[in-house]
Specification:
single chain, Rossmann fold, 6-stranded parallel β-sheet, about 25% helix, 7-stranded mixed β-sheet, 2 domains
Length: about 300
């Protein structure tokens, strides 16, 4: 099969389009023929060696953790799916090796979910990692009706999902972002405030008694979180481990079928939209990484692998 691979850590120059053997399909796994994958910043951070202290790596690596596609066949003890099923998944495994920027990928059925009909193949591929990150941070903090939630970096990939999910959970959402993104966030139901000096005062002007929940999707904002969080409030970060010492939670998305099904249900109800920034063919993953690295993308960057 065709796959994007790298055989050592490095920059975008280590990526190559190569021929790789079909992955073995183990017990409880499905072989998925990839239609679309999606780029997340973690993909190129892993490639740089940034997660080497955290995860074992087996070279050559096929990057990519998000996928939508069609089940080709299933392994032993995988009765949940059959060949031809349309699926999507956050396909991260316990070590770095066989990812989704390839014609085929194996996925444990515990992380595989039926693709929602309301989303295109590309949109479905854009949901798993960013969507689960937002969903898990908000639900683990018990976000619900009547809560006022502050989302740091609300215009980013995770933040855009976070705004929509928090609204669907019944919360009021205050969203930090640059002014150029305020109209877009208002369309999603958030109350935007600008970054920079005085941001805590701007949040307090909207929520004088403090906010109930803060989710940090950017890092470096712990002082602002402390300043606006009401007594007894809950907070989490995906980017700042110091949040633990401040009484919050440091989180990372887990592969989770139940969470993906919840996101699929929101999409089917029209409560979750997936903005797409740009789509690249498989051979141009390096260009997709470069766009992601620029840090100014509004919407998901997709990799189109196949129409089959």
């Amino acid at each position: 099969m065709k796959a994007i691979t790298y055989d050592k850590y490095g920059d975008n120059g280590v990526l190559s389009l190569t021929e790789q053997p079909l992955p073995k399909v183990g017990p409880g796994e499905a072989l998925v023929r990839v239609r679309y994958a999606a780029v997340n910043p973690v993909d190129w951070k892993v490639m740089s060696g940034g997660l080497d202290a955290m995860m074992d790596t087996v070279f050559p690596v096929i990057p990519g953790w998000d996928v939508s596609g069609v089940v080709e066949r299933v392994g032993i003890d995988a009765p949940e799916f059959t060949a031809g099923d349309e699926v999507f998944s956050y396909a991260r495994k316990d070590y770095v090796h066989g990812g989704t920027f390839a014609e085929y990928v194996t996925v444990p059925v515990r992380a595989l979910v039926a693709k929602p009909a309301s989303l295109s193949w590309g949109e479905a591929a854009g949901v798993p990692l960013a969507g689960l990150t937002a969903y898990q941070t908000l639900t683990r903090l018990g976000t619900g009706s009547g809560d006022t939630v502050l989302i740091h970096n609300a215009a980013g990939g995770v933040g855009t999902f976070g705004v929509q999910i928090a609204k669907a959970l019944g919360a009021r959402v205050i969203a930090t972002a640059s002014e150029s993104n305020h109209d877009r966030l208002r369309e999603l139901g958030a109350e935007p405030v600008s970054y920079g000096d005085g941001v805590a005062d701007r949040v307090k002007a909207l929520a004088p008694e403090g906010v109930d929940v803060v989710v940090d999707y950017v890092g470096g904002v712990l002082d602002t979180t402390r300043a606006v969080l009401r007594e007894g409030g809950r907070h989490a970060s995906i980017a700042d481990p110091d949040v633990i010492d401040a009484g919050g939670q440091w989180m990372w998305a887990r592969p989770d079928a139940a969470g993906l099904r919840a996101l699929a249900d929101l999409a089917e109800k029209g409560q979750l939209r997936v903005p797409v920034a740009e789509t690249f063919p498989l051979e141009r993953v390096a260009d997709a990484f470069e766009l992601s690295q620029e840090g100014h993308v509004h919407g998901k960057i997709l990799i189109h692998v196949s129409d089959k």
